[in-house]
Design goal:
TIM Barrel, two-stranded antiparallel ribbon, 345 residues, eight-stranded parallel beta barrel
Length: 345
Amino acid sequence: MEYRQLGRSGIKVPELCFGCGTFGGHKDEFFKAWGAADVAEATRIVDICMDAGLNFFDTADIYSFGASESVLGGAIKHLRREDVLISTKATFRFGTGPNDVGSSRYHLIQALEGSLKRLGTDYIDVYHLHETDSLTPVEETLSTLDQFVRQGKVRYIACSNFSGWRLMKSLSVSERHGWGRYVGHQVYYSLVGREYEWELMPLALDQGVGALVWSPLGWGRLTGKIRRETGIPKDSRLQSQLVREIGPQVPEEHLYTVVEALDEIAKETGKSVPQIALNWVLGRPTVSSAIIGARNEQQLRQNLGAVGWRLTPEQVVRLDAASQVPLAYPYWHQRQFEERNPRFV
C-alpha cells in the first residue's frame, strides 16, 4: 500500500481508504442498499484492511443516522487509536430542529461532539464539511473548524462537494486570518464522471488540496457486473430508484462504451474491471486516496487488488478516450488555447 501526502499537509494517508457507508445500514432504504454490517462483521473488515496497510476509514454522521459511526467505533476498539485514521463529516440535517443542519457554529459544535461520542474517540483525524452551506458565512464556519483544531479535537480539516469558487474563497479566508485550511476535498471522480478535471483539479494542483475520491466505481456502475447485453443485475443497488436518483447520472451508451474499454484491458492485464477502474483513478493528478466500499470480505479483497501495479500509458490513453465527454463552457473554449492552458490529464 502506497502512502501519499494529503494535499499540502504533513499527514500521509494510504492510497485506498475504506468507506464505512456499509456499516449499520439497516434504518432506511438508501443506506440499507449499501450494506448493513454489524460490529462483528465490521471488525473483520477493519482487520483485513489493517493487514493490507489500509488504516484510513471514512464515515459521516448522516450515514444511517449515526449508526455507521457507532459501528466503526466498535470495530476499532481492539486497535491502538494512533494506528487508525478516521475521517467523518457533518453539514447535512441531523435532527428535526431549525439549527440541526448546516455548517453554522451551533450545528458543527453539536455535530462534532456527537461524532466523537459515537466513535468512542477524543479526536478526528480528518473532519469534513459534507456539503456547501450557502447561508452560513464562510468566516463563521472556518473559525469554528480552526477552534476544533486548536482544541485538539480535529487534526485536519477538509471539505466535500464544493464548487471551485467556494473552495478558493474558503482557502483565501483561512490564509487571511491564519486559520486552518482545507487540505483535502472529498469529490466524486470516476471513468464515468470526469467533471472534477474541469475546474477542481487545476485548483487543487495550484492550492495543494488533495482529492479523496468517493464512488470511484461510478456509483456502482463499474463493478464489472453491468454489460450492454444484460443491463443492471437484479442484486445491484442501482435497482433502487432512490439510489439511482440521488446519485450521479450517466447516459447508458456512454457507460457501455467505458465498460467495453475496461473489458478489453481486463483481458490484457488479467485484472478485474473494478481493479482497472480504481487503478486509473489512483494514477490521476491530485488524488491522495480513493474511497472503496465492500459489503463482504470477497468484495473488499477484490478492491484491495487495485494497488501494487500500474496501467501502461497506452492503456490509460485508451480509457481516457473512451470516457471523454464534451466539455462545458468555458472549458471547451480554453482547451483551444493549450499553449497557455496546458492539459493536466
